[in-house]
Design goal:
Blueprint: E1 12-20, H1 25-40, E2 44-53, E3 58-65, H2 68-79, H3 82-92, E4 96-106, E5 121-129, H4 134-151, E6 155-164, E7 169-176, H5 179-190, H6 193-202, E8 206-216
Antiparallel strand pairs: 1-3, 1-4, 2-3, 2-8, 4-6, 5-7, 5-8, 6-7
Helix pairs in contact: 1-3, 4-6
């Protein structure tokens, strides 16, 4: 993160989190895979995942928008899309217990990445930082992220800083070959003096931290 301009002052990402009724998760995921093409006809889907560990019966999906006018136009078009409303929304809505969305920007020093191959698992880590924004904690946070990257056991996909939602929140999306590969890498990182030092400096600004292991849907561009 930085105290100066964002990487791009226009493009942003909407992060949506849905809590699905426990008995309806399989049905919901099948519907998404079957009908998501009606939704992606209107705007770009970055990724769609369901949680395996760290949270139960949740799905995460990320959408890219050129600007806020673009999002407004897409939302209007979706409201008038009979296929989307009739084949997905009307059927899927009763399966959802709760919805949450955030608007976030990629941090200036991060471009949206891709895994080296299909398969593997994703880790979604949410950091709630102390009030004050990147001017207070940005450099220390970036150093901690880079320290993990430099270990080589994990692949950074994206770092998102919230603009709407809970402020001073940073979401980091990682990719690993498997849950076991991630576990082994974390164990090694905890014994790496460079990682320990960087994390110790960054944690001074940390309020809370939460993570989840994500599995991509068949329809997810990131998979």
């Amino acid at each position: 993160l930085a105290t100066g301009p964002r990487q791009n002052n226009v493009i942003f990402y909407e992060i949506r989190t849905y809590d699905i009724k426990p008995a309806k998760m399989k049905e919901f995921l099948e519907m998404v895979n079957k009908h998501i093409h009606f939704r992606t006809a209107h705007s770009e889907l970055v990724g769609f995942w369901y949680t395996e560990l760290g949270a139960m019966n949740k799905v995460f999906h990320i959408w890219k928008y050129d600007n806020f006018a673009h999002r407004s136009a897409v939302r209007q078009a979706l409201a008038n899309d009979k296929d989307w409303q009739g084949k997905f929304i009307s059927v899927a809505s009763p399966l959802i217990e709760k919805q949450h969305n955030e608007v976030a920007y990629l941090v200036p020093w991060c471009e949206l990445g891709k895994p080296p191959k299909e398969g593997g698992v994703y880790e979604w880590v949410t950091f709630q930082m102390k009030p004050g924004g990147p001017a207070l904690w940005g450099e220390a946070f970036r150093a901690a992220i880079n320290a993990h990257i430099n270990t080589g056991y994990t692949r950074l996909i994206g770092v998102f800083h919230t603009e709407y939602g809970l402020l001073n929140t940073v979401h980091v999306l990682w990719w690993n070959e498997s849950a076991d590969h991630r576990a082994a890498g974390r164990h090694s990182a905890h014994e790496d003096a460079r990682v320990v030092a960087a994390v110790r400096d960054s944690v001074r600004f940390l309020e809370s931290q939460q993570n989840a292991l994500l599995i991509p849907l068949q329809c997810s561009p990131l998979k």
